[in-house]
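Margin note from the TA: students keep mixing up input and output lines. Inputs are the sequences; the output is the structure of the whole complex. Example:
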Amino acid sequence: MKAKPLCGKILRRAACILLGAALLLPLSGCGGRELFERLLIHGIGVDKDGDGVLVTVRSSASEAQEELFTARGSTVLEALGSLTLTTGRKPFYAHNYLVVFGKACAADGLDRYLDFFVRYYSTRPSVELFLAEDRAQEVLSSEKEAGYLKMSELQQLSESGRETGESVGAALLDFVNAARRPGSDPVLPVVRTLEGGGVEIVSTAYFKGFTLQGEMPLKETRGLLVAQDELRTGEAVVRGDFGAATLTLSAVDGEIAYRPGGDGPPQFTVSIRAEADVSAVSDTQAVLNEAAYRAIEDALEAQLKEEIEAAFARTARRDGCDVFGLGNTVFREDPSRWRTLEANWRETLGQCGLDIQVACEIHRLEQEIFGPALG
Amino acid sequence: METTKHTVSARQFFVMMFVSHAALSLFTGSRSLGGGNLLEGIFSCGLAQLVGGAVMWPILLLQRRCPGLPLPQAAEQALGKWGKLVSAAYLLYLAAANGAFLGLFQIFLQDTVNPEFSASVTIVLLLLTAAYGAWRGIECVARCAGVVFVLFLLGTGLVFCITAARFESENLRPVFYDGWGQTLYGAAAFLARTSVYADMAVLLPFAKGVRARHFWGWALGCWGFIAVLLLLLAGCLGPYADTQNFPVYALSAITEVRSMQRLDAVFIGVWIMALIVRMGSAMAAGRACFAGIFPKSRPGVGLCMAAALMLAAAFATAESRSARMFLLGAGAHLAGVFLCGAALPLAVFLPAGRQKSKGKGGAAHESQTPLR
């Protein structure tokens, strides 16, 4: 067998190492720019400004501090691009947490402002969207403890709002999908600045396609979340002969079922099953008896039903917005029926029947642990 | 009759073909499938694989009739000097098809990843690496494919598992809602992208113990991978996928786990590895075709020619609109698949059969082949 020449072996190994190393070089990131040459954007606010837009940008200045910039342009990208002239740095959107739109943008139709965030290469579909009660600039300029409110905290506000069950969360992906799906409309949390600093979620905006149609209070928001099976947990206060009971909701399941309903408008059944713990009771004896537990269950069922009905009456019956996604349910489950309904769905939506069935169970720990003697 | 040494097993060969084919799944989306219902793409892909079985039939028949004989040599024996035209057609098709996909990858890097990305340098390096593998031989590419196969499945599996948490049944559209048009168009589009049939036609003689079940295993595996990908695209991205040129890439960025939202490097690395395997096997096939046209040429010349043609096609696709319209057009690719996958192997198979029946085939013997 002929031995391979040593220089051939060395050449092959050298070629392997060089090619491997060279392949890694183009992946070194940031497009060949140093980090200090980048404007690392954490939050963007978009307001309508005449025929153009005013963008307010929050970027990281250091570990703890954020900077605030504003720029104008005829489009979102042009305005953001002009930041280079004032900062000397190129905007980098991959670290962006959220986008806040001014109310005027939403009334105008968000699609014309949103397209940049959908198309541009370095924007992310998981970025959180908010609607400002008035102007986005105010929200992004909000201060807290001798500095600007951090954008990560504002994003956290949306997540914690979902935890308490009174706020919707909407990533860009969810919003675009809800607006583009047949028989479905999107929602966004509405935020406003507080006098003492910081921001709070005040309501939920609902849209017809990409155009703002109205707002619903947080109580009705929970009705929407329960029906859509998106409520994780939350607190509910119910009142009755037992006084005022504060309940912690858990294991909430919601389901919307479609019933064809003959030739008339489609009928839907919303089935809710929820479990709850009694966290606090006022104006009553120390120990709850079985009758009190049943009364609390009835009160909770009535309250959840009322919240769902109120949300449906406001969004669907009054404004023709399908935030519950009822049309989408028909589209998926009965496509041939959807063909006949699609053209006039918004008018039909308000006539649809909504049968709400709520079954709540309060955990009776006192009875279960200490036995019937206390029942 | 010249036959080749079997250098890879059938399993290795079809793993290499799986990686080569799966590398193109990056370009899957509603725009390439002719409609917004990605679920119908699952049926389209299945249909394309079934039609692919028919396309593959002449190749398998030819291999059964002339076992171990590389297609360029089989063509020359069956068709005489016209056989060189067959080799030239394969060489051109392999270079054009794979170069076009490489050009599309360059567009992807510039359009979706970062316009400042040194995409042309990446393409050249990718091609050089693939050429090195092809120069070391088909066995080297197949072994590399085995490793890449595992990494590819792990990498895509990681992305799939993370994004599956965002699956929403509300995003799924009823299948065939707008008729069968999209499914049929999608099947043609999938078939047009299966240029690996040409690779199989040329490289199959270098694989040992190939049976029809290996092919169907490959077809089923490819369909399963694409089906899972399409299901996740439809359920996780929904209508948002319609707004993206490369929705598979967008899939890697939708997780709610913040630390996992920057999977771009993993994602691109996995796809570059798969493309190296694809280009390596295509170049190995191109090299064999070049040797069929110029039997006395040195192996390196054929390799350089195949690489140069691919690079030219890649840059033409990335830079020229008219070249892009032609090289990425489903019609041209579909014609190439039927020509190199079925028509040319059949054109070789029929005369080869007559010669064999006349006893002109002679005894098979092993000889040096252009592939190690």
